[in-house]
Amino acid sequence: MRATDYRPPRWLRNAHLQSVLSSMPLRRASGLRALERLGALTTEHIIEVEGDVRLQGFHTAVPGATPRGLVLLLHGWEGSSESGYMRHTAAQLLARGFEVFRLNFRDHGDTHHLNKDLFHSCRLAEVVQAAAEVSRRFPARPMLAAGYSLGGNFALRLALAAPGAGVPLLHAVAVCPAIDPSGVLHALERGLPFYHWYFMKKWRRSLQRKRALFPEHHDFDDRVLALDMRGLTRWMVQRHTTMAGIEEYFDGYSVAGDRLAGLQVPVNVLASADDPVIPAEGFPRLSLPAHSTLEIADFGGHCGFLEGADLRGYAERWVAARVEAAAVAADRATMPLSAPA
C-alpha cells in the first residue's frame, strides 16, 4: 500500500467532505460493529504515573488468539479512545493478529475527574510513562504505536523519547500528525471557520466540565471561555504552564524541520495534500532518517481517507499494513540462522 494508490471516487475528493464525514457518529458506530464482529474483548485500565497522574486506557484482544504484538493507539485533540478512526484502526489491527491499547490523554473521553490539572500538548512525559507501564503489563508482546493528528504528533515524540526512557517501542506510525503547531493555528484562523468553531466547541465543553469538577482550582469565568483559540491558548499557557508564552508552548511540541532527524525508532508518516487543518507544506521539509518514510496522498482531508459510501477508511488499513510490515521485519531480524549442512 502506498499513498499514491489512494483514489477515492470523485464525489469523495472534497477535503472538507472527507474531514467532516470521518468524524460522524456513523463512523464510530460502524467501528464498534467491526470490533464486535471479531469477538474482541475490551478491558479498562487506569495507568498511574509520576505526580499522581492517572490516565485511562482500554486493552482489546481477541480471546484465544496468540498476539503478534501490542499496538498503542493515540487519538487526536478533543477525540478519544472511542473515536471512529480509533475503533476502525483497532479492528484492522485485531484482524491481523495484534492486540491494541487505546490510551485516552488527560481530559479526553470520560476522564476529566482523574486529574486536577488541565491537559496541554506539552505533557509528553506522562504519555511516555504510560507507554512504559503498558509495556510492563503486557511484557510478552513487541510494542508499536500509532496516532492520528495530535496523537500522531505524540506518537512521533514517543518514538524520539522511547530509547532514553526505556520504552521498548519497535515502530511508530502517524496519520496527519500536527508537526508545526503554530502553522496549525494559522490554518484554523485563516481557513473555513467551521474547523475553528468545531474544535473550540469541544475545548470549551471540556473546560466547563473541568471547572465543574474542580471549582476551587479552576475559577475562570465565561469571559475566558469566550476567547478565540489563540486567546484561550495564550490564557492556558499563562495560567497553567511555566512557559513564557504561546510561541514557546508551540515550540515545546513541534516536530517540524530536523527535529525527527535523530530518531532511533523507525516511523512512517501519512499526510494528505489537501488537509484543511494540518498545512501540507511542512511535510516535505521534515528530516527523517533513512529507516523512516513519509507518504503524501493527493486526497484525504484531515484524518479522512474514506474510500466510499460505507465510510471505510484507507488510513486505518495503511496503519495496519505498516505495523504488520514492522512486526514481520522484526521477526526476521531475530530469527536464528540455519545451521550449516
Shape: globular
Strand content: 15-25%
Order of adjacent strands in the largest pleated sheet: 1-2-4-3-5-6-7-8
Distance between the termini: 38 Å
The residue ranges in which pLDDT falls below 50 over 5 or more consecutive positions are: none
Could you please describe the fold and organization of this structure?
- The structure is a single chain.
- The protein starts with 14 loop residues before the first helix and ends in a 7-residue tail after the last helix.
- The chain is α/β, with parallel strands linked by helices.
- Strand 5 (about 145-150), helix 5 and strand 6 form a beta-alpha-beta unit.
- It has helices at about 15-20, 25-35, 85-95, 125-135, 150-165, 180-190, 195-215, 220-225, 230-240, 245-255, 315-335, and strands spanning about 40-50, 55-60, 70-75, 100-105, 145-150, 170-175, 265-270, 295.
- The protein has an 8-stranded mixed β-sheet with strand order 1-2-4-3-5-6-7-8, with helices on both faces.
Question: Summarize this, please?
Answer:
This protein has 341 residues and is of the alpha/beta class.
Furnish the topology, listing elements before pairings.
Layout: H1 15-22, H2 25-37, E1 41-49, E2 53-61, E3 70-74, H3 84-95, E4 99-103, H4 124-137, E5 143-148, H5 150-165, E6 169-175, H6 181-190, H7 193-213, H8 222-225, H9 229-240, H10 246-253, E7 267-272, E8 293-297, H11 314-334
Parallel strand pairs: 3-4, 3-5, 5-6, 6-7, 7-8
Antiparallel strand pairs: 1-2, 2-4
Helix pairs in contact: 2-3, 3-11, 4-5
